[in-house]
Amino acid sequence: MDTLAFLLMGLVFVASLIIQGGLQATFARYSRVANSRGLTGAQVARAILDAHGLSHVRVEPVPGALTDHYDPQAKAVRLSEPNYASPSLAALAVAAHEVGHAVQDAQGYAWLRVRASLWPAASLGSNLGPILVLAGLFLGALGLAKLGLYLYLAVALFQLITLPVEFDASKRALEFLRRMGFLGREEMGPARRVLTWAALTYVAALASSLATILYYASLLGLFGRREE
Fold it and tell me: Membrane spanning segments where (predicted)?
């Protein structure tokens, strides 16, 4: 079982690299293609927010690449500096996606609330879980190692709940772009491809956590008595 878990972790790692490469290549390709209306990511985000009565939600630039996110505490859509000022198809897709989260928040989208409630446990599990597992194995303290494993389960649960949140935000984004006329029919395909590759990164993250949990459980002998 240890070998199987290790092989699964390797396969997930390779798949994650492929997905990251696909996202970067797709994003780079459509970052060089301007939308037909010449609108920037910031302009589109602002227009969609205003159309949904969210004029109080700010649109702000943040440093870095693919650092785009929605901050529910500050009520701010934060776009990476390239996407904030760019009129590319990729920028519009990302901007609309982040606004999708703002609309989810405003409408009380259930999965978003569940994910927010799980964040403290997931953060603790991500930081402390692996340490407790390894410390427990080193010290021969099975109870301590199991506690680390249970804490790490919160990470996988958080990532599982993240999937419907992200898929729904992308679905909303494409509908915003189409219904409000920001992208033409021939431009919707590229926007969909950008968001699809981005969504796959969350699938890969969940798969990685599940493979890690399987490996930890195997190390702890939870699938049967380990041979000495």
Answer: 6-27, 121-143, 149-169, 194-217
pTM: 0.90
Of the residues 60, 98, 187, 227, only one is catalytic, namely 98
Q: Which residue has the tokens 């509908």?
A: 175
98 is known as an active-site residue: yes
Helix (H) or strand (E) holding 86: none
Q: Are the C-beta atoms of 13 and 5 separated by less than 8 Å?
A: no
Annotated domain spans of the chain: 2-34+88-100+108-219
Contact 77, 102 (CB under 8 A): yes
- How do the pLDDT tens digits run along the chain, 228 residues long? 567 777 888 888 899 999 999 999 999 999 999 999 999 999 999 999 999 999 999 999 999 988 999 999 999 999 999 999 999 999 999 999 999 999 999 999 999 999 999 999 999 999 999 999 999 999 989 999 999 999 999 999 999 999 999 999 999 999 999 999 999 999 999 999 999 999 999 999 999 999 889 888 888 887 765 444
User: Which strand ranges, in their side-by-side order, compose the sheet holding 58-62?
Assistant: 58-62, 76-80, 69-71
Question: CA–CA separation, 88 vs 25, rounded Å?
Answer: 14
Half-sphere exposure of 204 (CA within 13 A, CB side): 20
